[in-house]
Specification:
alpha+beta; Nucleoside Triphosphate Pyrophosphohydrolase; 5-stranded mixed β-sheet; globular
């Protein structure tokens, strides 16, 4: 079984009761909203990763104002390519404040659109699970940076 670890950094940017999100299209045409952020490059500090990724995906420069916590998720199963895979994602979640730049959309990347959403409207959006996890970290601010009652690992072939 092939094993893969991905470390990524994301930002929760809230301004005037709105959350900054990026839209991520899937090959089948469906879309999900994601936090701005993404994978670390080899040798890169996660603090630099989150600032780079937010700028790439939204056009904004951010000031990192806090470390909210970390989330780890694991997927084990049969991916569509036919090889078994054991995937673990370690997601570092920061709080960020807009420090400059202008809202724009990423071209040729993993997202295609960025927008501000009212916090009350977020539960109605098609979104990845990390959005909910990050908002809980932002609201609860656990001293140890880890949420209680986290979802269990799931199989890749689960819907």
């Amino acid at each position: 079984m092939r094993r893969k670890l991905r470390v990524a950094a994301y930002a929760v940017c809230v301004r005037d009761g709105q959350l900054l999100l990026a839209r991520s299209p899937a090959p089948d045409g469906t879309v999900e909203w994601v936090l701005p952020g993404g994978g670390m490059e080899h040798g890169e500090d996660p603090y630099d990763t989150v600032r780079r990724e937010v700028t790439e995906e939204t056009g904004y420069r951010i000031e990192v104002t806090g470390l909210l916590g970390m989330d780890s998720h694991r997927l084990v199963g049969e991916p569509r390519v036919g090889r078994r895979l054991d995937f673990q994602g370690l997601r570092i979640v920061y709080e960020g404040e807009i420090a400059g730049g202008e809202l724009r959309y990423e071209t040729g990347g993993s997202t295609d659109f960025a927008a501000w959403h009212d916090l009350d409207a977020v539960p109605g959006l098609a979104r990845v699970r990390l959005v909910d996890t990050a908002l809980r970290l932002w609201r609860e601010r656990p001293a140890h940076g880890r949420l209680e009652n986290r979802p269990l690992p799931r199989q890749m072939n689960e819907e």
